[in-house]
Write a structure and sequence with these properties.
The complex is a heterodimer of chains A (187) and B (164).
Chain A: H1 2-65, H2 72-76, E1 85-90, E2 94-101, E3 119-127, E4 137-140, E5 155-165, E6 168-182
Chain B: H1 2-64, E1 71-75, E2 82-89, E3 94-102, E4 105-112, E5 123-127, E6 130-136, E7 139-148, E8 151-160
Antiparallel strand pairs in B: 1-2, 2-3, 3-4, 4-5, 6-7, 7-8
Amino acid sequence: MFTALKKLKNKKRAGLMLYEMIISVFIISISSVFILQLFLYSKTLNAKANDIDNSIVVILNAMELSKNYPTLNKYFKDDFFDGAILNTSDTNKQSNIYKYYDENWNTIYSPANIDKAKYILELNVAKIESSSNNAILTFKQDALFATTYGSSTGLKYNIHGKVYYAVDPSNILISLQTTSYFSNNIK
Amino acid sequence: MTTISKGTSNTETFLSLLLLILLSICIFTLISTGNITEKRILAQTEIKSNARIAEGYINLKLKQNDISGKIVVKENPNTEKNALVINDGVREAKTNTWIYFNDGYLLESTTVDNMPPDDKTATKIAKIDGFNITKEDQKVVTEISYFYDNEPHTVKQIIVLRSK
């Protein structure tokens, strides 16, 4: 009688252990899904941070260049805009220029390869009629950049630049604005 | 009857052990994947931040010394590559601050006027894989390269000086 009870108890324990293990595997599988999602998210986040980082460099380079030229026509003729597409009717008033980059942030020079672009830099340059303040170059992006130099004479333009994904223009990586005098009179 | 019961119990124990092994493999894989991911992201961040440190340092130096005749780009006689030279000092004690690339680092060396930089006394600024600088009138273009995943990457920076 005692032996039979002991055997029954052992049998029940062995069964219980299997159930415990099945439950453990189930729990670990469920939690693994969430953890793997976190890994994937961290990779995406890292890639996005990288994209924003490169976008800032590209857009600041474009805006910094504006200090070097007295007119828009000369500005757009800089090497930086090689391969870029200019969309304008009158370059002295308002212009849009598009520069295309591949997945490694290399410039796409040939218009035939534009469909391979992953990122697009869009610059909107508009002439400002009023020249009430003396700022010649002011970067604005949530007050992150604010640089003002002394007074100057020259044409005053507002450059609004943004970098976005080619596949989704609404997905803007970075947007910057600058008010710039195009003048080479600065000493 | 007793024999069958014993057999069932052994099978269950075996299955439990099998699941236990499976569970350990899963946990081990999860931890090692996490570890690899973390190391990769940290390595990438470090490489990128080194490139940004180098870029930021040169930007700062150019903006600080934006005075006519102070900023020059010339060839480093030791490496035969372009270097940024900042002319400093007063009449009798003129100095040159060389910012250049050598042996995997962006270095800064201050020397007596017209003397080449000295690697032994130079300060390490950041670990990068390549550096080039060119100056055309007021436009200074710097290119900082680094390798990640065996692929070369370049950060190109354009700075327009106010002084001529």
